[in-house]
Design a protein that fits this description.
heterodimer, A: 116 residues, mainly beta, seven-stranded mixed β-sheet, four-stranded antiparallel β-sheet, 0% helix, B: 113 residues
Chain lengths: 116, 113
């Protein structure tokens, strides 16, 4: 089955540690995205990538880093510089839309990160 | 960056009735795309409906339809014949020319039996 996988579903870390969240897709999508979801704030864009070896900052990139070495993989590292890392993280992918072509994003099941 | 505003944190509807969820957005782009996503308690995001800004005709998907007012930058979702399974968080989303996506804060919909 085609889809997006995120692992693990729940992740616990101690404050001051870096942690990497996994996101893999087998949909052959060029674009991949990372979002953070906090209660009452909807989804906020962290990073996105439209092609291998290239990515752009979203609205809340500070304290996060990403890599895009393979088309199917877009891992997110939450660094110790992120002040409030506890949140629900969603990964998504999409076909890269050309002009007047609309494609929706497909989402993974999410990872709940708790930092204490 | 573009912003998306959902002014109704919570809404409720009686089963079989109709409810409208509001969404406004701010942009200077002429070509863009709008979406409504549903997030049930499982937290899996599910596409409900999409709208291309260059199309004047409002999109419909079975019981779901939108009222797209481009000049007013408004994109509301109407759910007809509401069902218990429609209870969820609903997010309005804007996709710009650079393929970045912005979401509103969401509206929690409760369906009363």
């Amino acid at each position: 089955d085609g889809g997006i996988t995120q692992s693990p579903k729940y992740l616990f870390r101690k404050e001051g540690q870096n942690v990497t969240l996994s996101c893999e897709q087998n949909l052959n999508h060029d674009a991949m995205y990372w979002y953070r979801q906090d209660p009452g704030q909807g989804l906020r864009l962290i990073y996105y990538s439209q092609i291998v070896n290239d990515f752009q900052k979203g609205d809340i990139a500070e304290g996060y880093s990403v890599s895009r070495e393979k088309k199917e993989s877009f891992p997110l590292t939450v660094t110790s510089a992120q002040k409030n890392p506890t949140a629900f993280y969603l990964c998504a992918s999409s076909i890269v839309a050309g002009r007047r072509q609309v494609y929706e994003q497909y989402f993974g099941p999410g990872t709940r990160l708790t930092v204490t | 960056a573009q912003t998306v505003t959902q002014s109704q944190p919570e809404m409720s509807v009686q089963e079989a009735e109709t409810v409208t969820l509001s969404c406004t957005y701010d942009t200077s782009e002429s070509d863009y795309y709008l979406f409504w996503y549903k997030q049930p308690p499982s937290r899996q995001m599910i596409l409900v409906i999409r709208q291309e800004a260059y199309k004047q005709q409002n999109a419909t998907e079975n019981r779901f339809s939108v009222n797209f007012q481009k000049a007013a930058k408004s994109f509301s979702l109407k759910i007809s014949d509401s069902q218990l399974g429609d209870a969820a968080m609903y997010f309005c989303a804007y996709r710009g020319y650079n393929n970045d996506m912005r979401f509103g804060a969401g509206t929690r919909l409760t369906v009363k039996p």
